Amino acid sequence: MAVDLYIFAAGTALTGLKSSSKSQSLTKIISQEKNGITIVFGSVKGNSQTFAQLTYDKLSNELNRQVILQDLNDITDPEEFLQIQTKNQRILLIFISTYEDGTPPPSAKWFVLHLQEAATDFRVSKNELEKLTYAIFGCGNSLYNDNFNKLLLYDYDKVELANMNRLFYQPHQAGLSKVEAAADTLRFINPDVIIESYNMNITKVENFPLFMEKIRTGNKNNSGPVDLVLSCVDNFGARMTINTACNELDQTWMESGVSENAVSGHIQLIVPGKTACFACAPPLILASNIDESTLKREGVCAASLPTTMGIVAGFLVQNTLKYLLKFGRVSNYIGYNALDDYFLILTLKPNEDCDDSYCRKRQLEQQLNPIVIEENLQQTTTEVVHDSNEWGIELVSDSVDVPNENTIDRNRIQLASSSNGTVSLDQVKYQYVPKIKGDPQVDTSDNETSAASTTRDDDISLEDLMAKMKEM
To answer: What domains, with CATH codes, occur in the chain?
Structure first.
């Protein structure tokens, strides 16, 4: 006989717990039929309880099996409880939320501790555990519930099989509206978030006023503007539409994208008037007069490497959290090259001659009333861990030292490497070679217009220099 055990846990709840005193009371016995399903939960804020209740309702309505919902508070003897599940060959679903540093809720501590001890304690029978089939799913925590109370989704495309490799859609959703499929999944993950989906093309003239109105009044209470607009579109027209709306409404937004070859991407924070808007610097594809419509083929995504898109999406979400929760430094622009694992971080200033009139208007407003993006950077002091250096480990700079009369080498530059010793770069020259007194190797033939054409005598007096200037 065996029991299928499914533990839905957030964080690392199953490690690092200390022993506690075992309760002497027996587990609350519930009459359980064979081959049924038992759902138990341990919750702090009620999220796991809500998720468990939804699962209970769905399974009770769709399966012809006994389904039991039980609080872990009622389980005072986990060993007895598991034995009952095994004896009746039941499927056991456990929903456990975590908080702070991954600590399980008080109601689940003893149960989790029992599972840990059962794996190592010789006094606990291993026969029952060997029969268990289990899986652990991370359900997240309440962070998004506290800070993301409402989502507005816009898209007019349908789910395709080509989307399966990088999005959370499933094959049976092919043909459905992307916003409808996404909304259904997100509501199941967190039913407390208000989700409004709009299956519409925002680039159409008839749809633009509604899009503008939702940005202006689409907060949780429909009484003010949204906190942030995220652009995850894949075409120039949609980006320009979002750019136009946000410039007109003075709405901060973040733009993201992956290149057509799927090996590079970027995210960009756009604050109207303070940073460059999307129209300030058009993408290279348009400057090259390439028809954007020719890049998309039916059934094939222009950028379909899930790793690159996952990395860029991670940067976008991280930057969003820092902006909304006001911690750390919010990045203005991050570029990623997957071929070289190279990251470009910079700030793009607005173009004074931008084609968007509202962008130019916001620039004038910014000059009169500068916008300051708050940063919450904690200054930390690193304490010395060891005073001794037994192995002679040294930290060296990876920058090029300024040459002096002892280290200058005109055919080679020695660069300090952070890995093992030095790395030589041939055929690297200084643009301007300093004059070193007494050094016969100085060759100024490459600098005829600068240092070589001018007398460089360190002993020349100020009077002689003024006299030479008068002769010119």
So the answer is: 3-138 (3.40.50.360), 200-368 (3.40.50.720), 412-471 (no CATH)
- Is it the case that residue 101 has pLDDT exceeding 70? no
Mapping DSSP to helix (H, G, I), strand (E, B) and coil, where does residue 167 land?
coil
Measured CA to CA, the distance from residue 194 to residue 196 in angstroms comes to 7
Query: For this structure, is 301 an active site residue?
Result: yes
Name the residue among 102, 125, 137, 139 with its Cα closest to residue 14.
102
**What element of type H or E holds 86?**
helix 78-87
Residue 460 to residue 463: CA distance in whole angstroms: 8
Number of residues written out for the chain? 472
Q: For 418, how many CA atoms within 13 A lie in the half-sphere containing its CB? A: 3
CA-closest candidate to residue 28, choices 69, 82, 75 = 75
List the catalytic residue out of 277, 301, 354, 359. 301
- Among 54-68, 93-107, 334-348, the least confident range: 93-107
* Residue 247 DSSP one-character state: H
- Long-range contacts at 146-149 (CB < 8 A, ≥ 24 apart): 147/321, 147/324, 147/325, 148/193, 149/193, 149/194, 149/220
- Residue in this structure with the two tokens 């100024």, named with its chain if needed: 444
Helix (H, G, I), strand (E, B) or coil at 124: coil
The pairing of strands 3-9 and 132-138 is parallel
Q: Which two tokens stand for residue 142?
A: 């309440």
Give the model confidence (pLDDT) of 156-170 as tens digits.
888 887 777 777 778
Yes or no: say if 89 and 38 are a contact pair by the CB < 8 Å rule.
Answer: no
Query: What pLDDT sits at residue 16?
Result: 27
For the chain, the maximum distance between any two Cα atoms, rounded to a whole number of angstroms, is: 112
